[in-house]
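re: ur question from earlier - yeah i can do the single chain one, its not a big deal. heres the input i used so u can compare w yours
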Amino acid sequence: PVSEVSTLWQPIAILLGLIVIAMFFIVVVVQTDLQRPLRRLDRAVAALARDEYDVPVPRLANDEIGRLASSFEEMRRQLRATVTGAQARAVIASELNSPQPLERALAAVCAQLRTSSGADTAFILVNGSEMTDSFAVIEGKELDVDVATLLGGEGPIGCAHRHAGPDALLVGAASDSPEARTGLHEFCTAPLRMGRNVLGVLGIARVEGDFTGSDASLVSSSAEQVALSLERYRFIAMMQRQASTDDLTGLYNHRFLIDYLGQQLALAERLNTPLAILVIDLDHFKRVNDTYGHPVGDAVLSGFAQTLVGSIRRADLAARYGGEEFIVVMSNTAAVDARRVAEKIRAAAEALQVPIDGGRNSVSVSVSVGGAAYPEDTTTATELLATADAALYDAKHGGRNRVCMAGERAGMEGSTNVTSVIRPRRSAQ
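and the output i got, formated as tokens:
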């Protein structure tokens, strides 16, 4: 026999059990598929609120929550690129406006560009000008190619150099281009444009992987800042050069010479190396002005200045001391070597023919040279200049067109146009 009550409760118990099991599975599903992704998304969004843009939003399932997470991740990437770009621009502006050598500032710019974009190489290539030779500043993988070749080539850098606008170009390097032969294939480049003039090219490059629009924006704005800095540096250099050079001859002027001589003598004393100075005067120059006029006299001075520069080393300094008097400062040079240079200058001047009357006639000149050396003749810049000037005085009074070196003895062999003077050291006074 079966009780009616037990028969009624069995289905109810089974139904309740099924309901409990279903609710359990619903809780598990909600916990797994909804609450846990929502908590992960909430943590990622909270990180964005704290300006932590380097923490990626996790990838979720391809549903409404997953699409919401993807939107937040795209927003994070854009915010990160914007913040990184703004920080990079601020650092670049600070480096370019800080009081430091130009190439050091450009190196800091390249380092910042490479770090911000994650590129393999960042570079700045600058054209040569009347103020400087062409040069390159590179951070990362080297571009072992001549600057002029890259700027004038058909690769990404050459395209940017010829680009008419200031915006950046995203260009891949062809397999036969000089850039591709360095191992770099993807480029983001912009011209260093100043008005109508292009001063060079700035860019970043990767072995593989594309650049983004944010990278292009950073390169473009950086190129504008670098172009302004290059123009400012060139303007300052031009002003400094004009302040330190003689307008007629292009040689350094009296003021620059005095500062330079003091610096070189202090360096020679610290390094225990010799230093020599030559004082050169054009013989009978007043007669040239009186006979042919001052324009011809200026041509003679300019012509001799070119001859003088061609007769000395690139490391030596030639200056116009005043009027028809010139000075050469030679570091790491003893008296005996300075005398050979002086004789070379004297012979070159004697061979100089300055054309006049449209080339139908010419004017010849000669020079007298006096020289002195540190530490053989004196130990101060003022006395060195005075001693060389005194030797020049002896050369002119000994017949002109000759060389006199202070401190040489009469028996020293040399050219018939070389005499010697033995003079006690004296002060500038």
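The first strand starts at residue 121 and ends at 126. not sure if urs matches, ping me
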